[in-house]
Each structure stands twice: as C-alpha cells, then as structure tokens.
Amino acid sequence: MGLLRGRRRWLAAALVLVVVVAAVLVLVGHRGPGYRTQDATVRVLTGPDGRTPVDLDTRLYLPDGASAASPVPAVLLAHGFGGTKLSESGDARHLVRRGYAVLTWTAEGFGRSGGQIHLDSIDWEAKDVSRLIDRLAARPDIAKRGGDPVVAVVGGSYGGAVSLLAAGTDHRIDAIVPSITWNDLGRALLPNHADGAAPGVFKSQWAGLLFGAGSGDLTSGLTTGSTPTPSPVLPSGTPAGSPGCGRFAADVCAAYQELAVTGRATAATDAILARSSPRTVTSRITAPTLVIQGEGDSLFPLDEGAANAREIAATGTPVQVFWFTGGHDAGDGTRDDQERVTSLTDRWLDHYLRGEGPTPSTGFTFSRVSGIDETAASGNASTAYAVAGDPGTDGTGRVDVALPTRSAQIASPPRGTPSAITSLPLAGGLGAFTGSFTLAVPGQHADVESAPLARSVTAVGAPTVRVRVASPTGDAVLYLALYDVDPSKVNGRAVLPQGLVAPVRLTGLPRSLADARPVQVRLPAVAYRFAAGHRLRLTIATSDQAHLGPTDPRTYTVAVDGPVALPTVDAHALPAGGRGWRIALLVLVAALALAVALAVLLARRRQRLAARPVDEAASDVPLVVRGLRKEYADGFVAAARVDFAVPRERVVGLLGPNGAGKTTTLRMLMGLTRPTRGEVLVFGQRLVPGAPVLERVGALVEGPGFLPHLSGRRNLELYWRSTGRPAAEARMEEALAIAGLGAAVERRTGKYSHGMRQRLAIAQAMLGLPELLVLDEPTDGLDPPQIAAMRQVLRDYAREGRAVLVSSHLLAEVEQMCTDVVVMNRGEVVASGTVEELVGDSPTVLLDVDDGARAGQVLDGLGLVWSDEEDELVVETAGRPVALVVAALVEAGVGVRRVQPRRRLEDAFLALVGGDTRGSGDR
C-alpha cells in the first residue's frame, strides 16, 4: 500500500507540473502587444517606363500601439517563388509582436495579384517594392528618418533576391535580410565549376519545377517555411500569356523554353537573367545587409550568398554572413539554426531600424551538424562557429589530401539516360544532413579514393581539385562529387555532403589524355567535418538527373591531376543562444520530463514483472501468432482473432476467400500495420519494428519493386547493402540459382516480364537464406514448369530446418506445395492442420487405368462424374461403393492399376467457408 501511495504522489506531482508548464506556455505564447491586420488591393505603376498599372494583393500587420503619436518602423516581408502574402504569416506575426509594422504582398503573377512573372526583374518586381514603400511613407503611423520611412526588406529565395534588387535601386531602405537566394541567376541556373569561359550546364530539374509552379499558377511556395495558399483565380486585368506559359512574361517563357531544349543561353536570355540578378546592383547597396545562406541548397548554393556579401562589403556597407544547415533541399535546418536565424534577424532589425542593442558584427558565422537531437524538428543538433572576417568560400587555410592519378574511360549515355542521382530538389531534408541518398550508374563514372585521413578536417568553403580530360568530340560535360567514406561501415558507407555536385562543361579538349592540360574544378562549398580514419572519394560522372547534358553517346578519358584541397578556417565555437524565458521554460520542461519519466519507469517496471522479453516455449518456433486483431477507427474489423504457428521444416499455406483478412494478417506479421491486440512471436521474441530478430526473416509481401535501369544482380546487391549486413552473408549465388534467371540476371529489370520480376523478388526474399520465409502469392506470373520448380524449391528449403508461410489463391497449388494449411474466413482462423488432416475422407477416388477412353465410356454408362487429370481419372462415386465401380471397369476389359481415395483441398476449403468466397471486404 505504501508503494501504491508513493506512485500516486509521483503522478500527482507530474500532473501539477503539466498544468504549470501549460500556463507558462500560454503566457509566453501571448506575450507582447497585440496587432490588427488590413487587407487591401494596391495599384502600383511599374515596368520599364514606370507607367504600367499592376494590382498587388497586400496585408498590413500593425501593432495595437502604432499611431501618428507613436509611429513604428516597418518591415516588408517578401515571399518565396510561388507563394502569396499569406506564405510568411508566421514571421509576420513574430515581427508585429516585436513592435514592427509588417507589410506582406503577393508578387506579380501569383495568387490574386495582377501582372506577370518577370523573375524579380529590376524593371518590375524590384520597382514594385519601391512603390509599396511610397505607400508606407504616406502613413503617419510609420516612423520616419530624415523624411523617409524607416523600413527594412526581409525575404528568402525569390523574396531574398527582390530585397537585394530593391536595396540597390531605392536608398530609402535602411536594412535588408536576404536568405537562400542568388547573386547571378544565369550562373545559378547554368553553373560551371571549371576554370574557363565555357557556358554552364543547365539545372533542368530545378528550372522545370520553378517553371511548372509559375505556368500552372500554383502557389506551392518554394522557399522554406512557406505556407501554401492556393489562389487559382486569375485577377481581372491580368495580361494573358502565350500558350503554355501560364502567367510568365513572354520573354521569360521563351528563355526557359530555349534553355529546356538546348541547354544553352543566347545573348537575349543572358540579358533577361541579368535583369533579375542582384550582381548588377550590389555595388550600389548601402543598406546594412545580413546574408543568410543554406548549406543544403543545390538551387542557390553557398557561392551565391558569398558573392552577394563580397560585392556589397566592397563598398563599405556593413555585412554579416551566416551559413545555416537548411536550404532549398534541407528545409529550415536544425531547430538550433532556426533559433539562430530568428535571433540574428531580430538583432539586425532592432539595431538598424530602432537603434537598439550593440552594433552587430560584420563577421562570418557558420553552423555544422554536430549530433542527433530527438527533440529537434530535423532530428539533428548543430553547433555554430565564428570566424574573424569573412573568408567567403575560399577559407583561410588549406589541407591537401592526395588522390591517385590513374586514368579511366567513362561513357556518357544517349540522351543522358539512365542518370546518376545526387541532389533531390525539394526533398524536404531527405538525406540533406547525411547526403547518403545517391546513386551512381556503373560504367558512367570513375572513382579515386584517398588513403585514410590521419586527423579530422572541417572543410569550410569550396574544395578544389585539378583534372585532365580527353574527348573525341573536343568537349565534355562532367559532374564531380566529393564523398566521405567510412571504411568501418559495411562496404565502406559513402556520404555525399548535402548531396551537392559540381557540373563542368569543358571545350577545346584533345583526343589523347597525354595532350590534356590540367583544369581546376571548384567543388560545391560545404561546412563539413571529415573524420580521422575516413577516406575521400572523388567521383567523376557523365550524367546527373538534375542537369541537362549532351544527348549523343560519348566516351571520355579522365584522370585526377594532384590532391584535393580542402579549405579551412580558424573558428571558435559559439555558446548556444537563448533568452531568459527560454531557460526558465527549459528548466520547467526538464522537471516535467523527469516526473513523467519516473512515472513511465514505474509503469514499465510493472510490465517487466508481468512479462518476459523472450517466450522460452516458443524460442525454437519460427512464427507464433496469438490473438491477433485489427480494428479500424470506423469500426471495421479486418482480423477478429488470428492464432496459428509455423514450425520448422514445414511449408504452411494461408488460405481464405477475398476479405478473409489474409492480407491484413500478413501486413501485421511484417510490421507494416500495427495490430489492435495480440502479438507476433518470431523465435520467441515479440515482433516490433527494427527488432534484430527480423534478420532471420525474409519476405515478399505486396509485390516486388526494383529500380528499372539496374540489372537484377545490381538490384539484389543494393537491397542487401541497405540491410547493413556483411556482403558475405548474402549467399548471393544461391539466391540467384533459386531465381533461375540465368544470363537475364545481368539485364535491366525494366525489360523483365512479370514472371521474371516475381522470380527475382523471391530470390531477394531468400537473400541470406532466412530461417523464416513469408511469401504472398509467390507463383503469381510463373508458367507451369516454373510453378512446379518453385514448389520443389520451397519444400527443399523447409526441409533444411527452416519454415515457409505462403499465402495463395491457387488451392490446387497449395495442396501440392504445402505440408500444412491455415484457413481464414471473416477475420478468423476456421481450421488449421496438415493437408491430409483437412482433406480427410474422400467421396472422390483416383483411378490409374490402362485404357482411359474405354474407362470413360464405362463411367458415363454408370452416370458418374469424372475428369482426366494428369493421365489419371478422378471419379465422383456419388455414394456408390468403390468396389462396384472397379468391378464394372474390369468387366469391360479395362485394367485398373491403382485405386486411391481423393478429396481435393478445394472441397475441404469450400466446406469450411460454406461456399462464401466474397468475405467481408479485406483492407
């Protein structure tokens, strides 16, 4: 009783803390002044001549205290490409609660605004910002300085570029905070990381996404943190674009179509991109600038932000730079960095708009993922480092890592297909922090690998390497990537930092490598730690899914010429930021977590006392299913109660009509859906996602899935690598022998028939020769000889001490393949046992006769139903004694060699389910 009272006191204390923390959160969430909003359609005069009227959809957020007597500074908050005035509402609410008037608007060509998309042209979208500032200047509740409104422009991606272009043309702007944006739009969309003046390589995948968002009038918001606000209604007075151009201006649309077809920019296209490039005005920007650039960004990489900072700072304008762990590919970055971005922006605006706080530094800060934090939005924690001065992407030091200089020949495929996969636009962080989601195509790349690093190196900036290239056509398009290889992992796990690749276009190349001059390639800038003992692998590839390369097949000869140079900086770690209320809140949350943890520990202690982790009685049984039930929220019961076992050396067939619950049961067995009740034991261990015992299970459930451009063998190899187990344990050759594909295993699976894919899928399930094999419709798509062979394979597989569970609709096949049967109907097991037990006494006999034609005449004369099955007669005796049937055949001169009672599994099945083959609608 004393222990029970103690538990109750702990739980009561935890509940009190929950209430206290909730109250604190409510107070924190509503701190500061209130605000009001004003929506309006604002007509601006814009365009090259400043006379074209365009209606912009706007929203003004005003603090409650703003008035002519108490004016407040203003922030124009610009959205990303495809967004609207509502996309930045979260940041707008944050800033208005800090006492700023915030103006958001929908850019030309999007949402309910008029006009067309000019890609932040200096003649259009940048001029729109000036016209909006005019409107703010006329308001008495907006603070003035020297007669001009006190105003800043903040934006990311598309909004970041317009803040730079506006600041370069309107000197009333007092501060800007551009993030994850570009400096030179032509270079960003057609990058070339090699020395020389050759044109760049078109980012076809990114450009296609952007054009699709604009031409379809979508409002998806391609900047991080945006909130989509669909507005498919085209405002009245919006000029109609050319067919297929949506709301893009005709010249911009034509430029994209030219690039998408040729991959090259003409002088006219270069001019259009230049009008949208901040580099044309950075020398005129006098507004203090906080440049925030994302490390996980294959659209506008770190070099673009570094160029903006370098060019603006050259004029004496204060500039601060922060590289954070987010970007167009990596989302908002770690939670640590989200707070840093907010804190830096607040301090920048507070000082340059209000004159509050010390002058922000003009240095350089970068973040690097430093560990795993399960409480963070991204699952990662980051550490920030400060550097004296701004080294850009060149670094202040250099570490050379030697690479082999051997040459290799690599092929460029026709039409660039199949292509390697490196970066994944808009992947939402998939692989962004690990860079592990990459795929190189055999024969299309060459790898050179360093010796293990003697010490760790943190690269901050753009690594460089020299290469030599020979081409029979005199030119080449290549993609260079620098991987981090951990030899301690299975097959040397290779990570491509942030999934970034360097496209290179070279011209004037010789045919022979001996005549080739070294070309220096600037790899993508990173902030990444290469650990001691790891290797550096430089990959030179001929294709990349994200870019548009040559369409004709080619072969290049390539070689590395010297070491790879890693840029370094002399940096010191910064303490974690935060405010007093956050610290207090963290203390309360920590106390709450402690109380809850103690309560959970007490509950788990009771569970551990009530149940052991391993059921010793079932420890040698491959599969035991107990009381399994699946009930959905709408009350539908897909599986009511399922109990059965799959012992060693048995092939067990799972049967049932459509809707019986077979598929749901298999999904629960494989952990694809969570049961409402019951348990699944694999060798006595309760099955949970990620359980080590799953290494002893192989499965084919819900059909095979393979990469179509890879061979069958390569697909199996990649699958096994994903398990993290040593290659030697795969038993690859035995699995391939089971598949029986012969030389076809070296062909691309995209050319496989359905039956070939099914056989490969079964081989995949058998990799490692698991002790328990679960197969859903394994003979689907196989022809009769293949079915017979598979039948024997599974029986032999089980005889070696393993177990097989097979779900199938082919009753005759199950009868010949399986040793045992489990029959389900309406979510329950209605029978189980050996095939012989279920078939039982038979009203049917099997007759082996020497004259089948004559025997058939005799049986017809007796009025019996019979059939010819595999040179034997199956006869329904209709209650007549079998001896009388045999006597009639002998009397007619038919020799009877064997008589065997026979009841088909189908008969037993239909008897068990009562002829109901419809079931209840399995899910």
TrEMBL record:
Here the segments flagged for biased composition (Low complexity) are: 221-239
- Region Disordered: start-end pairs: 221-240
Please name the SUPFAM superfamilies in this protein's record.
alpha/beta-Hydrolases, Galactose-binding domain-like, P-loop containing nucleoside triphosphate hydrolases
Q: Which InterPro entries match?
A: AAA+_ATPase (IPR003593), AB_hydrolase_fold (IPR029058), ABC_transporter-like_ATP-bd (IPR003439), ABC_transporter-like_CS (IPR017871), Galactose-bd-like_sf (IPR008979), P-loop_NTPase (IPR027417), Xaa-Pro-like_dom (IPR000383), Xaa-Pro_dipept_C (IPR013736)
Any single Pfam family the record assigns to this protein: PepX_C
User: So where does this one cross the membrane?
Assistant: 581-603
Which SMART domains does the UniProt entry name for this protein?
Answer: AAA (SM00382), PepX_C (SM00939)
- Every ABC transporter domain range: 623-851
Q: Which UniProt keywords apply?
A: ATP-binding, Hydrolase, Membrane, Nucleotide-binding, Transmembrane, Transmembrane helix, Transport
An MF annotation (GO) of this entry: ATP hydrolysis activity
Write out the similarity annotation. Belongs to the ABC transporter superfamily.
* Protein's recorded name: ABC-2 type transport system ATP-binding protein
Which organism is this entry from?
Motilibacter rhizosphaerae
